[in-house]
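Sanity check

After download, print the first record. It should look like this:
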Amino acid sequence: MDTQKPDLSFWKIWNLSFGFFGVQIAYALQSANISRIFATLGADPHNLSYFWIIPPLLGILVQPIVGAASDRTWTRLGRRIPYLLVGAIVAILVMCLLPNAGSFAFSVGAAMIFGLVSLIFLDTSINMAMQPFKMLVGDMVNEKQKGFAYSIQSFLCNAGSLVGYLFPILFTWWGISNVAQAGVVPDSVIWSFYIGAAILILCVLYTVLKVKEMPPVQYAEYHGISAKKESGNVFKLLAKAPKIFWTVGLVQFFSWMAFMYMWTYTNGGIADAIWGTTDTASAAYQSAGNWVGVLFAVQAVGSVLWALLIPRFKSHKTAYIVSLLLGAIGFISTFFVPSEATVLGIAVNGKYILFISYFLIGCAWAAMLALPFTLLTNALKSTSKMGTYLGLFNGTICIPQIVAALLGGSLLYLLGGSQILMLVLAGVFLVLGAGAVLLIKGER
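Expected structure tokens:
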């Protein structure tokens, strides 16, 4: 029988996740700008999805390793914190290199290789820094407060995303150039990565200095487990995983397929549909790239507001289904948004109408951040392998992204090269995810 962990004050729960704000700025900059960066360097739109294989592939490798290793680690800093600190330090170094891939007088091929290697290191380090925050909540927060703690983490996640998404357009408004010569990433993007790196290390240092993790004996006492190390390899742990691990994983598969296509094709789709250009060297394309950051920021706002409503649903499954269907409507509606429309006799640019679409997409994102980990950690109350299981569960995030990236170019060909239709396809995947929620048993 495990001993009930004590209630934590608001600020102790806040401190557990505050560093996640900085990590999410880095992740948002990567998510919103990778397609833009590689398209600017000269990548063919049909090959863009292949660059997106790197982040989830590294996630599926790195996060289980970090989880399993941290389960067996204890230092003066704790078991999880050393990994997030090392990950953050590497991330800030790479964030200063990646956007400069086109600035070193490399050939197009060499710039692509430099950018790809930088992306590999960036995503490895972000994954290494991100996973420990999920584990810290699982380790230190009791069941009564866990939903609230993950809500705080979701809030900081979306707040960090909001900042990261808006940086390029804010720097453009402040006079930093948003255009550059062909093959070179604009200064507005480069400086976004620089400032994001500075905020990342400051936020992570705050958590490192403020959080004191449970020593092994105390952890064992609170979780009702032996203080001795448990044996068991990955395959045995998967065999013992609760059924909800797999049913929620199916929902995750369709959900993350959808968002992979959003990150990959929003820039090109919106540039073509609203700005009427596919020329990556044009000022119009780069303006569309900035606007993608604004749309993703609207998505983050929608996610924050919808997250406040999710706890009001009597059923987790109902909240999940409604959220994913709203997101599906958002994705599919992007196809029907004209470059300009008349509303109440006033001409309105279609880029503003897209606010509605991406706000609805934020509803799905809120559910994806809040519900899966709450459901899973509640099913893993008494185990010394919490980190390992959370790392393995990250496979339900990474595998669908890898599949989506591998299929992206072929699907784009089938859809006539229309990147906006890839967003419609993303909506279809969310509808399938909503249907898969019905397979989740044993949860309200």
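If your output differs, re-run the checksum step. Summary of this record's structure: The chain has one domain: 10-439.
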